[in-house]
Amino acid sequence: MTIFAAWQQLASPQVTIAMASMGFDWIVVDLEHSSITTQEAEAIFIAAERQNAKPFVRLPSADPYLARRILDAGAAGLFVPVVESRKTFDDFAEHCFFPPKGRRGLGLTRANSWGKNLKDYFEVFKPTIIAQIETKKGAENIADIVSSAFLDGIMIGPYDLSATLGTPGQFDDKVFKNICASVRVAARNNKKMIGYHQVEPNSQILQKRIEERYDFIAYGTDIVALRYSLEGIRK
Question: According to CATH, what is the number of the domain 3-229?
Answer without folding.
Answer: 3.20.20.60
